[in-house]
Design brief:
This protein has about 375 residues and is α/β, with parallel strands linked by helices. It has a single domain, classed as Alpha-Beta Barrel (TIM Barrel), CATH 3.20.20. The chain is globular and about 60 Å long.
Length: about 375
């Protein structure tokens, strides 16, 4: 029996309506009030470093919490939820399990990171987090989809890493990089394969602040597709600063589109970093130049530690702003990033429910 083609399914759905993404995993995790001990579980009880802020590890130690979050976002109206593995590469996981050499007079450099990407514990851990995160989201996508009669999808999340390929951390050596492109490529290829193994319908290279890191992720995806004879839709999403530029590589929205158009992404968009009020002009710029679908999942305003979510905007605020984006013809995908709970996503889903999706301009 032929397998469904997620690209064809999603493309057909996007002609009919704006598809809803999920909200903030980190924000919603914090509402469960987990302790360091609970985050560690028995498996990581002896870890030398705190891992409470390693939200990805909760897929292994607290799958019932992560599963409940996926369930709540799907029930709120999400067509697509992201897997809980934003930092699940050997490179990023090393922050929680390997001593920082700089604390002992050493430095992080390509030799250090070669050891990281060859470390069997970190590679196996990253693989397991990615596979299990995709399987957990897949379970709830299928359960809610079956219950409601509306197909739900799983987006394999590919985050930006904790290192930069674009910039040198050494003011006295502008050519120095802590890691090489090929090392990043290896880590991303392992993540991509694991996300596919776990059952992801599409891949989302997201929260891009370093365009060269994102380039490595896209090369990894293309390599895996060619080597494993598989293809999934891709969404590319950047985090931009107040000037509309990716925050380390300083590419404008239009420059980013020109840099990634060759991979024929299902969508390109903006997420994180800004609230919708500050993001709108840069979304308009991207919509004007991109010949593919547009995604947008902004933060719930700017950070505010005095609010329950840590961000200023309420569900009603997000409803109003995303309705404005939709009615302005800017959206094909809509959701929320930091500060957006299932209640925010429900408000976003309501805002775009009856609004026609943005028309994708033809090339030329």
């Amino acid at each position: 029996m032929p397998q469904p083609d997620p690209t064809a399914e999603l493309t057909a759905a996007l002609k009919e309506r704006i598809l809803v993404l999920d909200g903030a995993m980190g924000t919603t995790i914090r509402s469960y009030g987990l302790s360091e001990e609970q985050a560690r579980g028995k498996r990581f009880g002896d870890s030398k470093k705190d891992i409470l802020n390693n939200g990805d590890i909760l897929t292994l130690t607290n799958p019932e919490v992560i599963g409940d979050i996926h369930k709540r976002f799907y029930e709120a109206g999400s067509d697509i939820v992201e897997t809980n593995n934003f930092s699940a590469t050997s490179i990023s996981q090393s922050e929680f399990f390997v001593d920082d050499p700089r604390e002992h007079g050493g430095k992080k450099d390509p030799e250090f990171f070669q050891g990281i990407i060859e470390d069997s514990f970190l590679r196996d851990l990253a693989w397991e987090i990615n596979v299990e995160s995709a399987r957990l989201a897949r379970k709830w996508a299928d359960n809610i989809g079956s219950d409601t009669g509306r197909k739900r999808y799983v987006a394999g999340a590919i985050g930006p890493l904790t290192v930069s390929l674009t910039n040198s951390p050494d003011a006295n050596d502008s050519g120095f990089r802590v890691i090489t492109f090929d090392q990043v490529l290896v880590a991303y290829k392992e993540q991509v394969r694991a996300l596919i193994e776990g059952g992801s319908d599409l891949l989302m290279v997201e929260t891009i602040f370093d365009s060269l890191n994102a380039k490595a992720a896209l090369v990894a995806i293309q390599d895996v597709f060619a080597e494993d004879k598989i293809s999934l839709p891709i969404i590319v999403s950047a985090a931009v600063g107040r000037g509309g530029e990716t925050m380390i590589s300083a590419q404008t929205s239009e420059a980013l589109w020109n840099a990634v158009a060759h991979v024929n992404p299902l969508a390109i968009g903006l997420n994180c970093s800004l609230g919708p009020d500050l993001m709108k002009p840069f979304l308009e710029e991207l919509s004007n130049c991109a010949t593919t679908h547009i995604s947008c999942y902004p933060n719930a305003g700017l950070p505010n530690p005095l609010t329950p979510t840590g961000f200023d905007m309420t569900p009603d605020d997000m409803n109003r702003w995303l309705a404005d984006f939709a009615n302005s013809g800017l959206l094909n995908f809509a959701g929320g990033c930091c500060g957006n709970t299932p209640e925010h996503v429900a408000a976003i889903a309501k805002a775009v429910q009856h609004v026609a999706p943005r028309s994708v301009p033809s090339i030329g």
